[in-house]
Design goal:
Layout (H helix, E strand, L loop, with lengths): L3 H12 L6 E4 L9 E5 L4 E6 L11 H16 L3 E6 H6 L1 H11 L11 H8 L1
């Protein structure tokens, strides 16, 4: 289900002229798990965590269990997964992480980052 937070992040992505992500992407077929935003060609998935302070599904027991399963399965299949919150989107941190992940050849974020990439994450 698309949300206002996802729309806000998508607006930032477009304003930064980054490649258009796929929305509600099923990276783990035949599982029904969907990721809010995805760049499958570089193995990057983004999950927007809304409702974390209002008792939303991501912070209740069963919802958290599903999120952990989804994250772990995606990582086991070689995807990089970013979980972002409202504060991370509003501050621009989520966008900086996405920009950094997309700038790494092959999309892999494992290993050492360049000094510029590291600095941008710390701003």
């Amino acid at each position: 289900m698309k949300s206002d937070l996802e729309d806000a992040l998508l607006f930032q992505i477009r304003a930064a002229k980054l490649p258009e992500p796929k929305r509600e992407y099923r990276a783990l077929a035949p599982r029904r798990f969907r990721f809010d935003l995805a760049w499958p060609e570089v193995g990057l998935l983004v999950e927007v965590q809304g409702g974390i302070y209002s008792g939303g599904q991501h912070v209740r027991g069963a919802g958290y269990e599903r999120d952990c399963e989804k994250l772990n399965e995606a990582q086991m299949k070689g995807y990089d997964v970013l979980y972002v919150t409202r504060a991370m989107i509003e501050s621009g941190l989520a966008l900086r992480w996405i920009e950094t992940a997309l700038a790494i050849p092959g999309g892999r974020s494992y290993g050492a980052l360049s000094a510029d990439a590291e600095e941008s994450l710390c701003r």
